[in-house]
Design goal:
about 290 residues; alpha/beta; seven-stranded mixed sheet; four-stranded antiparallel sheet; 8 helices; globular
Length: about 290
């Protein structure tokens, strides 16, 4: 397996992006052509402070702005879609780990469907909300047993991980040999990303340290003998991301323009497969369920 430093070799400038959520600082996106992925530099010290905002919605149940309300409504629907996906693998023990579990809504939904659930959430406030929902939360994945879970999910989490290759190895170690790893990440090759350029909300610097393509996900997990068996589009993401991107670009919420760009992104992806966000179903290459 390659070393982490290989991901930082031969980087080429791609574009500059601003942190619109917390600091208003500017960061550089640099392209690693070998892995077809980008890295955010510099990585600021005290990165946890860049998550301290009510606008960082995965850590809260905020329902103030119109965008918040849209997000919360869509989330209820997507939770059922996620549950249907993990149920499609027909595991008997039904043991699930959700990393970056936020306020625990996904785990609570799965628990009601008789899954034994655990969550990893370093944000204390979000973890406290999860605990009130009856969900088991720990702060560090390394504390968990190896070969222990049928399904491990990361919903828009992998892009936040600092030591990426080491973390991918750890994910595999916590999974049962016949288990399934489900990872959802933004796709910087989508039409909405190309259209909004530096204003694309899913760049979300500096919280997003990595920016993946389909090719990069395949290559990264091949390093630990894991195979992407299936990709699934997250079609709602193009609309939500376009709403935020439009606000960053123009300073106002332009619903009609954002809806049009989101629709166009999904329409073009029907032939290119480059949706705004993608779910990857990943398994060990030497094992099948």
């Amino acid at each position: 397996m390659i070393k982490e430093k290989e991901l930082y070799k031969g980087l080429k400038p791609f574009r500059s992006c601003k942190d619109y959520t917390v600091s208003q600082e500017t960061y550089e996106l640099l392209l690693n052509q070998d892995f077809d992925m980008m890295v955010t530099l510099p990585v600021p010290s005290g990165l946890e402070n860049y998550y301290k905002s009510e606008d960082y919605i995965s850590h809260t149940n905020v329902n103030k702005s119109v965008i918040d309300k849209i997000y919360q409504r869509v989330r209820k629907h997507t939770l059922q879609n996620k549950l249907a996906l993990i149920n499609s693998f027909n595991f008997t023990d039904k043991k699930l780990l959700d990393i970056g579990s936020g306020t625990g809504d996904f785990l609570a939904t799965c628990k009601k469907d008789n899954w034994t659930v655990f969550g990893v959430e370093p944000n204390k406030e979000a973890g406290d909300i999860s605990t009130k929902k009856g969900v088991n939360i720990i702060s560090d994945i390394s504390l968990l047993k190896e070969n222990n879970f049928d399904v491990i999910t990361l919903w828009h989490v992998l892009e936040h991980v600092e030591n990426l290759l080491e973390y991918i190895e750890m994910l595999k170690s916590k999974l049962n040999p016949n288990g399934v790893l489900i990872i959802a990440v933004p796709n910087y090759k989508s039409f909405d990303a190309i259209y909004y350029k530096e204003f694309w909300a899913a760049f979300d610097v500096p919280r997003h340290l990595w920016h993946f393509s389909q090719q990069s996900i395949k290559k990264l997990f091949a390093e630990v003998s894991m195979l992407v068996e299936k990709t699934i589009p997250m079609k709602y993401d193009s609309y939500y991301v376009s709403l935020l991107s439009e606000k960053y670009k123009s300073g106002r919420t332009n619903f009609f323009k954002a809806f049009y760009i989101g629709f166009l992104s999904n329409f073009k992806a029907r032939s290119t497969s480059e949706y705004s966000s993608l779910i990857y179903v990943i398994k060990n290459t030497e094992n099948t369920i």
